[in-house]
Each structure stands twice: as C-alpha cells, then as structure tokens.
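Ticket #4471: structure export looks truncated?
Reporter: QA, pipeline team
Priority: medium

Steps to reproduce: submit the single chain below to the structure queue and open the exported record.
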Amino acid sequence: MPTRLFAPPDGTRLPLALPAVVPEPTPPGFPFLAALAPVVGAVVLWSITQSMISLAFAVLGPVLAVATVLDGRRQARRSVRRANAERIAAFARLRAEVAVRHREEAETAWLRHPSSGRLVSRDEPPEWRARGLAPVVLGAATVESVLRIDGSPSDDLDRAALDHARRLEGAPVVVDLAGGVGFAGPTPLVRAAARAVLVQTANLARPDAVAFDAPDTEVWRWVARFPHEGSAATLVLRDLTLPVVPGAVPGPSEAPAAAGGVVALATDQEQLPPGLAFVVRIDGPRTATLLQHGAVAGTALAPDLLGAEESCAWAERSSAYAERAGLGPRASVLPEIVRVRDLPAPAAAGLRRSTLRAAVGLVAGGALEVDLVADGPHAIVAGTTGSGKSEFLLAWILQMAAAHPPERVGFLLVDFKGGSAFEPIAGLPHVAGIVTDLDDAEAERAVLSLAAELRHRERVLRGAGVRDIGDLADDVPLGRLVVVIDEFQAMIQRFRGLGSVVADIAARGRSLGVHLVLASQRPNGVLGEQITANAPIRVSLRVMTRADSLAVVGSDAAAGIPADRPGRGIADRGDGVRVPFQSVLVDAEAVDEVRRRFAASPPVRRPWLDPLPTRLARADLEAALGVPASDAPASPGSHGSPGSSARRADSSGGPSPVVFGIVDEPDLQRRSPASWTPAVDGNLLVLGSPGAGRSTALAAIEAGVRAQAGASAVLRLGRGAPTDWQLLADLVTAARGGSLAHRLLVVDDLDTRFAPWPEEYRHAATAMLAELLADGRRLGFAVAAGAALGHRLGGGLRELFGEFVHLRHPSKAELSHAGGVGDLWQRDAPPGSGQWRSRRLQVIDVPPLRELVAPGPPPEVALDEGFVALVSSAAQRDLDLLRATGRVPVRLVPGGEREVLAGLGREPLLVVGDADAWAASYALAARARDTATILVRGGLREFRALAPASAGRTGPIALPPLLGDGGGECWAVRPGGSALRRRWPTTENIAYHVSGH
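Actual output as written to the record:
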C-alpha cells in the first residue's frame, strides 16, 4: 500500500477509539453460610418440638444455595451476550464514522491534487503556481490514510477495524516527476496516461519556468500549443511506441537530470529506459499496477487517462490565458513608458449607457481595456508610494472621459492625500467635483450625499419603468457616476461612518449606474466583504508585501515589481486572469484635447450642494436654501420655506413653526429650514461658547415669534434684577391662574443670569423658571434660553428643555458632553454655525434687537408719616444720615423699648434699631407691626426681624421684592400691606432738604 502523499484534511473532530473489550465474567462462589443456616435452624426447631417434620427444613438450605449459583451463572452469560451485541453495534458506528472521514479525506486530497479529467472539465484559468516540475496524479488507488484509531487490538474485530481505518480507497496517487515516470501497456492507454501527466504539469508550472520536449509527430504536435517555454526545467516525452524513423538519432537512454523529468511510453515494461522512479503497467482502462523503483511488489491503480481532443482544447485555452497574461511564446517586453498617443484612439460610444470601456495601458500583444459596466461594477486599485497609482487613476478617468460624453458619465473624485492628485483633470466637464482631506466637513458631506444620489436614481428608474440604467431611453438625462476615492483607507480611518455608505453603493450601484474605484496603498483588511464581493476588477501596482498582492489580485507578482518601474502592475478584469501591464501616462496635451472635444457639453450633474454660508440674512433665506438637487420629499418637520411652512401650519390648524436658520442635509442632497414649534417641541436651549452666536440665535427666534403673534407675545429678561424677579413672579402667578397672555420668554446667559443675586432669591428664581418650563406647554407658553455650558444650569433646568441648538464649543469633548454630535465639531466655525437635530446649522443673522431699558428707580421713601419703624443692618450710619436731614430719630437699643413706648403719643416718631434691638423689644415690635410704617434697610434677616410674615411675599414666592444693587433701596411696609421697593435718601437728597427746598 503506498504511503500517503498529501496533507491531512483540516478539522478538529474528536478522536476515534476502539470499543472496549467485554471482560470474561467471574464465576460466582458457593454460598456456604446460606446453605448451612437452614440446617442449623431445623435442628434447633426439632430439639424444641421433637417433630420430625421440622427436620425437612434442613433440606432447603442446600437447594437454595445450588439455585443461587446456577442463577448467577445464567445472569453472567446474559450480560456477556448483551455487552458483545453493544460492542458489535459500536463497531458498526465506528465503521460508518470512518467511512465519512475517509470520504472527506479523499475529497480534500482530490481538491488539492485534481485529476486531468477535472482540470479539462473546469472553465477556469490554469493555476501556474509552481516554478518547476510539480507532483502529478497518476490515478486512484488504495493508500494509507491519515486517520488513526486509538486503542490496542485484542481480537479480530479490533484488527479488522484498524485495518479498515488505515486503508483509504479511491485516493489520488501523487508522484514527483523529477525521477521520471514510465507507462507500459497498450499504445492508446499509455498515450492517454501521458496526456494526463502533461496537462497536469502545464496546469501547475508557470509558463516561464518549464518547457516541454515532445516528438514532432502528428500524435504529439498539440504539446507545442502549451505556452510553456521556460528554462528552469524541461519535461521530456519519449514515446517508444512510435515507429522508428530510419536515420533518426535515438533519444537518451536514461532519465534526465534533476533539473527536468522524463515521461516514457512503451508497449512492454522491458522497453522502458532504466532508472525511472515510477513505472505504471497498464492492463486496461481501469486497471494498472504502480511499481516504485526498488520495490518488490506493486500497487493496484486506476490510471488517470485523458483523450486527445480534450488535451488539445485545454492546451489552446491555456495558451489564450497566457497570451492575455503576457506569458506565452508571443509575449513581448512591456515598455517603460506608455503615452496616450501610443494607445488606439477610443471608439466613440455616443449616448450609449451600456459600456464604459477604456484603454488604460499596454499588455503583451496590445492594449489593456477595462469596462466598469461589463467587467465591474466596481474596482479595487492598490499601489504603494511611487508605484504610479495616482497616475493610473488619472489615466483611467481620462480615457473614460475621452470615449464617453458628460451626458453619459460623470466623476466624483475624492483625494485623501493632499488634494493635488486629480488637479490635472479638474477642468474636464465630466468632473462633478474634487473632494480633498483639507476640509473634513466638505469631504464627509460629499460622500454622504451619495446616499441621496442612489435614491434619486431609484426614482428616475421607477418613473421610467425600468430596472437598470442601461435600459433607459436616450432622452432621459441620467448618466453613470464613477466615484474614485484615492487613499480609501485614510478616509475610513477618519470617518468611520462612511464605510456603510460605500458598502451600500457597492451593493446597489450596478443597476443604478454608480461605480466605485477604491484605491489604497494597503487595501488588505480595510475593505469589507460586501465591497470586495462586488469589486471583481482588481489592479495592483507595486506593493510592499506578498500579502497585499495576494489580497488584491490573488498573486504575489505585484510584490516583485521593481521600484524603478512606476506604472507597472498586475490587472485582473474579473475573469481570474492576471495580466502584467504598463499604465498609460497622462500628459497635458491629452487632457486639453478631451477638454476641447467636449467644451460645448453642459456640465455634469453635481451630486451635492455647496456648504452652508457663513452668514445668512433673513432676506437671503430663500436663495440660501436653493433648489434641491433631488426631488426627494420633505422629511417630517422640514418645510420648503419660512413663509410656506407657517402658512401650511396655520391652514391645517396646527401650531406654527418658527424658522431661525437653515440645516444642511447632504444625505438628502438639499437644505431645509431649521424650524422650532414651541407647542410641539417644548422649550429651547441654545448652547455655545461666548461669541458663537447665542444671542443672534435667540434674536432670530424672538423675531420669528414677534412676526407671528405680535411684539407683546414675547418677554425678555435683562432689565435689571428687581424687574426680572418681578417678571418671573408675575408669570408664575398667571400660569397658576391659567391666564398666561404671552407666548415666549427669552433668557440669555441662563447659566450666569441669577448668579449675582442673593442666595435665596437665586434659588427661588430657578424654581420659578423651572415651574414655567414644566407647565408652560399646556398653556401655550415656552422658554427660549441661551447658555455657555448646559451642565452649569441648576435645579435640573437642563432636563426641562425639549430641543437644543449646539453652536461652537471649545472642544469636541465638550460638545459631545453637551449632547451634540462630536463629528460635526469645527474649531473655526463662524458665529451662528452649529447643529440642529444632529445636522449642520447656520442661524439667521438678524439685526440686533433694541436693548431693554431698565425702569426708573422706585419712589423715595416717606419718612414723615407718624410712627415709622426702621430696622437697619447699619443703624448708626442711618441715624447720622437722618439727622443730617433735620429729623430727630430715636435710637432703639436692647432694653430701651420702655422709653420709646412712652413717646408713642408724640408724632412723628422715627425709631431706628438693628435686628437684635427689635427682636429684644417684643411689645414695641408688636405695636410697630400694627400701626407703624416699617422700613427695612439690609437683607432678609432684618426684614424678618420686624416685618409681618404676610408682607414678605412677591406673588407666589414667600420673599419680598428683590432690591437693586448698591444699597440705595429699602423695603417699605404699611400696616396690613405688602412690602414695596422704595428709594432711600441719598446725599444729594440730604443736601436738597438742608437747602430748604
């Protein structure tokens, strides 16, 4: 039996093992005690009863003991029979599993070493992987299997199972031709066996490595059609069955040297030359014997035979493949430089959409033509720095543009290595645009627009009633779009989300007329399966590693291209044939010629709009929106224009949106108004750094609401702390009463608006604003606020806003932390630029609104009104000031209330004390709360020391009105009334009074 000549199949199955041997049963022992016990019992019973019948029980012991022994032996025999039956069944299962694994092992072997019959039946290119003579299959035989069974044999069943596992039937017998092979037998059969060996050798060996030396006769003339003419090794065919020609020089009588091999044919084994490593004695079409040199016995073999017509057809087919690959007898040396004028003039395709054929270089014997429609639909191009990859892309684009008008093909060029690669052809009317990595936002939106381009093309095809762009009528204005991305790897690394867009184009682009040409220095591992499966066209210029070459073109030839051969590469047009070629070099003359030829053609349709303007006036809103590049229906919440949107909302009875800018929707190829509908969307918060345009955005929103509901519908904080406090209190009072008459409250700098206020007022103002934010929607009221940092808002205010406008932030991290899309962050974004609902936004630049004018100061406090009680945080200072006006105030000190109470009948009486003095004067404080005008100079501590609790409320808030900064105001509480703001006399007032006025 021949030893195995191929590697074992891959797999991780559990190992096989011999079934366990059934052990011989142990004979049961005789139960002496069980037999003796009844005898002893019977004797004891007889001695007691003196009955002879009791002695009969003594017989039961021996009888039961013998029965037990017999039953044990019967049970042992039954167990052995059952175990043997289970072992036989285990052997059957083992043989079935061995048969399955033998079948898989044989199939794997035949896949690795196909027979000549399999080769000629497959319409595939030759493998051509060996650089010399490779092992060939002589036929099928029983060989030693790699399968092994664990365990040591103990009987014939075990030995039969092991023998069955070792024998692999119907497996290929593979031998090395270096030692020579001889065939002996009937002439037709040995020639068929030799043809099988020759075809297998021609399939495995490279044409430039191996040559064939066959007799120049009619029988073997077909061998000359092989493209092999290498010098590394020669396979000599000696047919001793041919008639001897008089005067012919006899061939060699021994096998060739190690650099080659010999295949000898004879009708008798004795006629074969000596020293052959293998001899096959053929007895019939399915029977033969393989004899190895030095072996005593032979191996039965089913020989591998091949017919003459099949061999000749395969030789012609392999020659055609070699011709295209630049390898065969007519192969020529490729030039170092190929210019456009060296290629045949492109045939004008007219208005046909069925082809994008273009000549991109030279191969042995002619021009290399690639058609993205017929061969594609997509292509992958690889090439390291200096390999000529960018020049090849230029040449391909230019040659397609030269053969097809802009009405039928356009190019979107994406360059992620600086932006200069496609500059020579930028002026062609076919070029829709060039996108570079110098502007990340523009590059991303251009590629995202391709998703909308696919939808636009789907609508055109659906409207025309066709399924493929090639079936469109000539008058339909829709051409093919070729998207060329240089350095695809860099683009994906920078914009991870674009990979799904490219994969979608790869999957649906064929019928829609969108083609991809993806170029990268190392595409290996970057392109997903969905892209590679739809990109049959492969081009590899010089790459650095064999793995990169294998990943692109399935051969390591591109890794061996010399560095001084830019433009030299390997191309596979999708048919599996790898062709060495020299790329054409684009010159200015060729570009100018194409530009002049199509100068009168209209520019190609651009698949994306210009970026948003850096400044947007309300009057320019319609012009900035432009006409959509595609007729896609408006998305929910988007409207065609500010006016039309409001009209549609009003006519339908729904709330009217407020337009405050425009958003960019590249994936829909359009711009749409940025609109906010307070009744639907809730409150709005504008976040952004100082100078980012927060105030402008709020002004645009305020102007929109004023235009819809009138100037009185909008309120704005910013007229001073006391006024803002009162405004919030009035709004909360109205909201609780369900009678809010206003539509919008605008609060700028919300994160710092209440920071200077006293702590209790700051917390109360936050609470009042939170109440308005939570309850305003049901009353038709909303808040639009601005802040630099949203996380600084206290009281959980941020969670009460339903919509957010994100303007410029200091960093991408802060933008993401604020809830924005970090990928849309721009370091140098202009004022008013940001994002709205995860899309880029430009806010309308409205004229600055009129500044809010703070109201005048409150009335001056009246000090000559009978009994006046003043509680002051600086009592001595106020005493001095009052005395300067000519008044005679009474100083209240702790324990001095008796003296003051004695003078209550005299009016006017002005009593001045600090909080401690009034708190210690219980009776006087009670009289003052009932009859006096209470004045408070200081803070809430002073107010609560004397003022009635009922007086300290501002609407719904249990606090008196907020006083202005500077200490020039005080609270005044009349008996039974609420606290009022009053102006305290200043030094100017004092001078006025002293002068006698």
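Status: closed, not a bug. The export was complete when the record was re-opened. Leaving a note from the reviewer for reference: The CA atoms of residues 14 and 149 lie 11 Å apart.
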